Amino acid sequence: xxxxxxxxxxxxxxxxxxxxxxxxxxxxxxxxxxxxxxxxxxxxxxxxxxxxxxxxxxxxxxxxxxxxxxxxxxxxxxxxxxxxxxxxxxxxxxxxxxxxxxxxxxxxxxxxxxxxxxxxxxxxxxxxxxxxxxxxxxxxxxxxxxxxxxxxxxxxxx
Length: 158
Fold this sequence. Notes:
Blueprint: H1 2-12, E1 19-21, H2 29-36, E2 43-51, E3 54-61, E4 65-66, H3 68-75, H4 87-91, E5 109-112, E6 120-123, E7 130-132, E8 134-135, H5 136-142, E9 148-149, E10 152-153
Parallel strand pairs: 2-6, 3-5, 5-9
Antiparallel strand pairs: 1-7, 2-3, 4-10, 6-8
């Protein structure tokens, strides 16, 4: 259901062909990178947090990890991930398919600077067997991004 919802959203933008469904699982960065044949950094990992009881989404490069200190500096609170069992209820997507599209109204979406080294990235498309191929500019627009933040470690600008 979630893939169809995301695909319908992209159809309204004339970009339905960017949504890809796979028979193999793409729930983890490693699985998605292997199925797509790309480096792990190009997998746009959608991190779902609770901030003061409300969802907050940050899309990061697949080879980056959230740095708790950086997160707290940007958002003024310690990071608190949405528990996997609550993901679908809170943001409309199950773990492994969490993406920055078709979220509840008003959910803020940010992109991490770790993505800036890539011209094209692959976020999930609502299921653990899907992806969307997008340029960074397209991701910014399609995810209704509020801008870039710097909350990650474990990657280097190339």
